[in-house]
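seq:
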Amino acid sequence: MPSTESQPPASERREALKAVLAEARGCTRCPELAATRKTVVFGAGNANAELMFVGEAPGASEDEQGVPFVGRAGKLLSTLLEEVGLQRNDVFIANVLKCRPPGNRDPLPIEIENCQDYLHRQVELIEPSVICTLGNFSTKLLRGDPTGITRLHGQPEVLTLGRRAVRLYPIFHPAAALYTPRMLATLREDFARLPELLAQGAPEQPPPLAEDELEQRAELSGPVGSASGENRNADDGPQARAGDPSTEQVEPDQLGLF
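struct:
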């Protein structure tokens, strides 16, 4: 694997991730989501995690508590992790959308487009070796391909997302097992491969950008500005609107695992 000496240290990446969180909390790019959300659910976990999970969007409980996967599907996710020797504080968990769609409807294409840069910046700053996509929306987004989760689950592949090469590993969303019990065995089989994938480490990384490319990229990226299937009713969590001065008090655990 190429040297990572030119990469920012972990402490610098954590601070950058907090800055992205601050942008997300003020996001109004998707007017309906900004108007109806209680909390921006940015993500939570180990900011230096080797393993990152990406789901679909917050459900009701997540919208209340500001933390992803805190409902029934989240409890199942924790159980499945424990069965392979992992804990939630070993991983980082995020969603494609950072705001709950009203009524837990599916994310709209424009919402995914508006919000995807937050996720890509999370990947860039966390630097996971393995990204486990949960369900169709995250799998299709990160693969850039419409192939569904039924055909792809349990099949890892190496992909480059931005400047980070990862082992992408699609599996069914835990909520699927809550509504279709026979899916639980499939989920367990797919989870069982995670230790093996993690033991392989990160795939070979793309060459680092030259200094002039880095400067050009910084000029083009700027602030994200604003944010904006799998039965998220199973992922059912103090109310804060974007720009509300109480937001920091309401969402203390968003990235409390830093």
